[in-house]
């Protein structure tokens, strides 16, 4: 069972899935008034405007951070038809766009926005990155 935590400023609610987080620190570096891993709770939804939060959460490479608008219908991420694959230095492969992943057991999973795939081979959540590359000192 996965844990989900929510933090709201009244307009937007930030949703965090700790088990999905690869600790890339895009959030902390990009919007430190909201994301501070030394504070408890580490997410302060009052620390920036709704638009700033939406823009920063949209950069989360693992999808551990998402958001929804409190007074609006669910907003699906808008992705252009073009996809992009980016190799992160000493980290995962980021795939931007809408993709379908077919697992070895035949199960299919749809991912939107950004998906972080394991490149080091040590993830306990293959094919997805779980941040293990930091622990093992992966270089590549």
Which word captures the global form?
A: globular
Instruction: Work out the radius of gyration.
Output: 15 Å
Helical residue percent band: 10-25%
Q: Mean of the pLDDT scores?
A: 88
Give the CATH architecture of the largest domain. 2-Layer Sandwich
What can be said about the biggest beta sheet? 3 strands, antiparallel
Strand content: 15-25%
**Distance N terminus to C terminus?**
32 Å
How many discrete domains? 2
The CATH top-level class label of the largest domain: Alpha Beta
Which series of helices and strands comes N to C?
A: EEHHEEEEEEH
Question: Got a strand count?
Answer: 8
pLDDT < 50 runs, ≥5 residues: none
Structural class: alpha+beta
Q: What this model shows, in words?
A:
By secondary structure, this protein is an alpha+beta fold. It has two domains: 5-69, Alpha-Beta Plaits, CATH 3.30.70; 84-136, 3-Layer(aba) Sandwich (Ribosomal Protein L9, domain 1). The chain contains three helices and eight strands. A three-stranded antiparallel beta sheet has the order 1-2-3, with helices on one face. Strands 4-5-8 form a three-stranded antiparallel beta sheet, with no helix packed on it. Strand 4 (84-87) and strand 5 (93-96) form a beta hairpin. It is globular, with a radius of gyration of 15 Å. The mean pLDDT is 88.
Characteristic terms for this protein:
Alpha-Beta Plaits, alpha+beta, three-stranded antiparallel beta sheet, 3 helices, Ribosomal Protein L9, domain 1
Structure described in brief:
This protein has helices spanning 26-30, 50-57, 132-136, and strands spanning 5-8, 12-16, 65-69, 84-87, 93-96, 99-102, 108-111, 114-117. The protein has 140 residues and is α+β, with helices and mostly antiparallel strands.
């Amino acid at each position: 069972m996965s844990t989900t935590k929510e933090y709201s400023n009244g307009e937007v609610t930030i949703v965090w899935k700790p088990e999905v987080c690869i600790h890339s620190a895009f959030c902390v570096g990009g919007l430190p008034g909201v994301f501070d891993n030394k504070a408890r709770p580490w997410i302060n939804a009052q620390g920036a405007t709704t638009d700033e939060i939406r823009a920063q959460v949209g950069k989360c490479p693992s999808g551990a951070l998402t958001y929804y608008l409190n007074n609006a219908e669910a907003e699906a991420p808008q992705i252009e038809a073009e996809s992009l694959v980016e190799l992160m230095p000493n980290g995962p492969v980021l795939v931007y766009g809408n993709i379908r992943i077919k697992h070895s057991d035949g199960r299919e999973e749809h991912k939107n926005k950004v998906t972080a795939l394991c490149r080091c081979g040590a993830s306990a959540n293959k094919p997805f990155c779980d941040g293990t590359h930091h622990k093992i000192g992966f270089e590549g």
